[in-house]
């Protein structure tokens, strides 16, 4: 028997309703100093998709910390521009340019060999290359293959190639896989992209667990989920201005990097400091925070949290797929967000 809209909604009993504790973090034990053991001067970062957008911003921001940067991309012109920017920050000897198509295993093996040959180890491996080719549920088969080959198998190729080396090297490392909110809440519009990013979430969760369970593996995995970021993928071109709702690639990357880098504050200071949120984020990552969900100027963190809970509620509470966009549930969803924000604010 189908549930009616009203009977499926039991606000006060649903474990998926936000409650006041949702907004607060547990007090976190103080940490020493502000330097992450992995994102650190002199360490090595490998970034795929570094020829533009978020990957380029990651390359320049990590260079500002004094890291050595290996940049990989299929777009050689983009790589040349990134090289120039990174070299200006950290010097030519600390930039390695390796044109790579991540969908091709032999090219990824070449990338690993080059980096280890030059620098002997890797601290940050950022799987960021991605495309936004469009495929709907029953059209665009070519786009489905392309997108899966880059967004999914690109990461699988890199993981399969690098992780055995990362596990056996002396110093710790982290793997950052770039996912998307579209892989979590699955908004209609590009089924192929959403499916590829849902797969990235799933494989990164599996990776984190497997690394945790591997004795002596000093490697962690993290899912980096940008908000709306103004890059080539989302329509940026030299002449167009960034829409007010989007963040720049630099803002998105800084949000992630600051999570690890801002010196920890004592708990007492945190409670009255404007840096409270950032320092709490920092401590969560130090404690192994896995999901790094980035806001933008249009979607604040609390709205993301509520949308994610609603999406989980479709499954747990037996609503139709993607009920957020279902005509019978739209009003209910909007009310849920209103109520949820009232509780969280
Ligand atoms: N821009 C956003 O709003 C947004 C939001 C969520 C997630 N993301 C993700 O962030 C990542 C970076 O995207 P971006 O927004 O900076 O877009 P972008 O197009 O500027 O950067 C993507 C880069 O990946 C490279 N690339 C494409 N195919 C490749 C391949 N086969 N091998 C190697 N490199 C390849 C491209 O040449 C490009 O330089 C992607 O994984 C994207 O899905 C972006």
From TrEMBL:
Annotated signal sequence range: none
Bias-annotated ranges (Low complexity): 1-18
Pfam families (UniProt xref): adh_short (PF00106)
Gene3D superfamilies: NAD(P)-binding Rossmann-like Domain
Keywords per UniProt: NADP, Oxidoreductase
Region Disordered: start-end pairs: 1-21
Keyword Membrane: no
Taxonomy, superkingdom: Eukaryota
Gene Ontology molecular functions: oxidoreductase activity, acting on NAD(P)H, oxygen as acceptor; oxidoreductase activity, acting on the CH-OH group of donors, NAD or NADP as acceptor
Family affiliation: Belongs to the short-chain dehydrogenases/reductases (SDR) family.
Protein name as it appears in the record: NAD(P)-binding protein
Organism expressing this protein natively: Hermanssonia centrifuga
